[in-house]
Structure prediction request, 402 residues.
Amino acid sequence: MPLPRLGTRSVRLRTAPAVFVVLAVALAGTLLAFSLGGPRHEPSGAAPSGHIVIDVSQSRCGRGWTRPEPGLRTFDLHNSSDGTAEVYLEDPGSQAVYGEVEGVGPGTTRELTVRLGKGTYAFKCVPDDADAVTGPTVRITGGQRGPGAAPVTQHDLIPPALAYQKWVGGGLDDVVRLTTRLRDAIDRGDLAGARSAWLPAHLQYERLGAAYDAFGDADSEVNGTDAGLPGGVHDAHFAGFHRVEYGLWHGESADGLRAPAAALVKALTGLRDGWSQTRMDPAQLGLRAHEILENTVQFELTGRTDYGSGSNLATARANLDGTREVLSWLRPLLATRYAGLPELDRGLDRARHTLDAFRHGDRWTPLDGLGRARREQVDADLGDLVERLASVATLCDPRRTV
Prediction:
């Protein structure tokens, strides 16, 4: 999927799924398995002391595990084939995944560390352009193994993606209604009323965060910033909510704001009217749940998207609502896979309580109005959620099972 063009604030940080596994382990304990470092180009027999060399190929998948023992073990996954492959360590009966490494290139070796305990295991090799192959089954009779998770498939994600897309359609109706109210206030020269109408419209759009990539170029027309524009805030291509925000809080006349406000309503109306023909990628839903708050930390908590309204904390609160909405549709999949779900819910409640303290009627504390202790609390609450949501992205990353 192409990255949004320069000028849009909804640039997503795409972290490799293998890195998400690291985060899931170090921060949430969801899958006690992770890959360490980059690929090593070395013969399959040259392994560090204590490491177990495992062959990754269609003809010899999983070969090399001759002394199964409980405890924390590191496997050197050596791809002896001529193509890239994913590797899962799973229970061959339930297909619960206990560790995974993606993108093991031909002739390279990647490490996988996993806590093994009583049960059965097998490596599954999934080449990019061939059928999956399951290696020999290994049984361990003692110890307690780390948590595993049943794989999520593309098929599992289609119902929640369709339901979420329908919800977004209703949200776009609300955004158009609220933004029309903003435009009408500007048209009649009521700039105080326009400033009051701007924030509710913008926050309603921000709550639709998991759909931004599906909005395509329309997102930069609706919520773009001046990043990368030669003329900055005075560039003719600076458009959308932040263009109107800049004018409303920097003394621009109603005459100067009528065209940007009309263009904003037009862009949103077109987005809403064409939404029923848009298809969100179900495979991206879990990743978007993570990226909403990742972007909040990157853009809102740094003030990079403040063009005068001082509403970054209000936007962060709306982004929290957007994250909760995505999770509500993913919850049936997560309930049986993510042991950290109750703690994630508590973290969401904690962040909501923290952010709500900065709302004073229709006004919000600006970032520069936070003292050090309160700023650290906001950073800690949202940073913790970003880390926990990496586990959601990992667990909802569709895996090939055949």
User: Anything to note?
Assistant: The longest helix spans residues 154-187. The mean pLDDT is 87. The first strand starts at residue 33 and ends at 34.
